[in-house]
């Protein structure tokens, strides 16, 4: 399958929707949408929404959605930046533009129709990727990885360099004792850039889990985002919606663990950690003291000017955090 066909198939399998925008569509738009109505093998979930639906948040995209733009819609894509969570794909004959995660260059109607057929054939024989379990909702302690759970070593590929941060074990254990889920949400652009390999990343990850386990401690769910911008590496361009400050990783954890966001906590040492958590509905936001604290705090103060409802706390030591009431 072509990469865009895989993107469509993954979207459907992850429970996402194919989203089209109403305004400034090409003249033959009805022909682009026709295959969905005539689908006989399986139904691809598709909706068409207006810019206003999105801006007013009457309709909200999910991280697993795939949003299509035509070249004629280029003018307003950037205005939707802050409200779109899903991946954005441009059907165009030109080059990629800002705000777009994936360009399907030289997309033609005939290619589109045959691609949808290929996706349908694939899905007809595919198994669901995961099924949501219906369990009781519980709050979650979301943690950034580098300089929160483990000491930051840029692009670390060496398990021997993994060192737990002071107080991390106590905080995680306290969260579990208080009935919280604990989830790790970490941007790992080193994967997307090819600076570290998947096997190296896994080695470092397992070492972190082993160090925690040695002290009777565990993390319930770990999500990482390898996405990077402006790099010609296909792997690096996948799952843009996961990378903080977008809320994708939080939504994935929420879908899987049924987290109650309004009672959940985020601890991160970057402004983007807290902004992503806020977008996902996490109420209690804590900026942890690290080397870059002054810069990150300044970024958040600036962010607050346009987002007065955004509130955060400063956390000097992990052991200072009080969960629950
Ligand atoms: Mg960090």
UniProtKB/TrEMBL annotation:
Keyword Signal: no
Top-level taxon: Bacteria
Keywords of the record: Carbohydrate metabolism, Cytoplasm, Hydrolase, Metal-binding
Cellular compartments annotated: Cytoplasm
InterPro entries tied to this protein: HAD-like_sf, HAD-SF_hydro_IIIA, HAD_sf, Heptose_bisP_phosphatase, Histidinol-phos
Annotated GO MF terms: hydrolase activity
Family: Belongs to the GmhB family.
Entry-linked NCBIfam families: HAD-SF-IIIA, Histidinol-ppas
Stated name of the protein: D,D-heptose 1,7-bisphosphate phosphatase
